[in-house]
Amino acid sequence: MRKLSLGLLLLALMAIGLSVTVAQDATPAASDFASNVAIFYVACDNRGVVNFTGTMEAGFDVYFTLYSGPSGTGTALTSLRQAVVDGAYAFSEAVNYNTGATVAAGQTGSVVAFIAREGAPASGKSEEFIVNDIQDGCNNPQNQPGTSVDTGVAGAVVGTTTTTTVKGANLLSPFGGLLTPGIASVATPEPAVVIGARRPSATTRGPNAGVVFAECNQYLPGAAPGVIYDTDNVRIFWSWFARTEAQVQEHIAAAQYDVKLNGAPLVDVGITAITRPNNRNFYVFYVANIGNLTPGQYGIEFNLNWSSAIFDGFANYGPGTNRETTRSTCDFTILRDPTGRSPGQVNLMYSLR
Length: 353
What we know:
Elements: E1 36-43, E2 47-56, E3 60-67, E4 81-83, E5 87-96, E6 108-117, E7 129-134, E8 149-150, E9 211-213, E10 228-229, E11 234-242, H1 245-254, E12 255-261, E13 264-265, E14 270-271, E15 282-291, E16 296-306, E17 310-311, E18 316-317, E19 325-335
Parallel strand pairs: 9-11, 10-19
Antiparallel strand pairs: 1-2, 2-5, 3-4, 3-6, 4-8, 6-7, 11-15, 12-13, 12-16, 14-15, 16-19, 17-18
């Protein structure tokens, strides 16, 4: 499962030349990571040249769509595309329009861009930034040319998608469906993706009580474990997804997991078959059946390395890449069952004494 501390993003967009658009949220504290993108866009007759520079937090990328009219109007000239960038970056690409599409001389085209999680453009999404340019001739890329990823999502009309999502709301459960069913985005519900974000109440106790996502702290509030009783069967899980089944299998072969509960390694971790639960990406789930736990505070330490480099269809992971390791955590509390029921067999290895 991708992992990251979302933090407070500094989202800035600067365009130069004929179009100047600047947007920025509150300045983060010195300890916060700032992700930003500066965009210079050139509308050509049969393609658009995008130039992105800035700094990007690991696990986030720039997404963009080109349009035939100003401010994201007219016809979508491309599907939603993902520019894979990390750290300090300078990315350029001449993107061909859809077959037969053009922008006539003197007509204003535009690019609509935003920052979101890798492989999940509806997750952790920033506000949309728009840059216009009059088609008065083409230009060469300013930076080393790259190739963006076609997400397969059709370009949407600006303003029809929500920019406020519930992080973790669309987290898939290894037992089918969503981990937190009934929690949706603030506006239009999103399709199921691995991560999605809003906090269930601290007193939330849903149908999956006891099912704990090992990286929940990085995907709060929607992935919060909620209320768990000492009579619940605690099951800890995590997952991995990729564009193809073969890419998931490569991950399984190379993944080196070190997951601990209160300092004790998880044992007898089961692995599911590779499935395609949302008809988009392929998944594998890892599940550790813990059993009943005594009341108290618990913490999961999640560490993932790879024995060799892999590619999941979105980004590279492992030795020699920008994503050599993953570190995540999850904290949760076990309460005594208020109904007076007695727990079954308590797993003493993880009990607090």
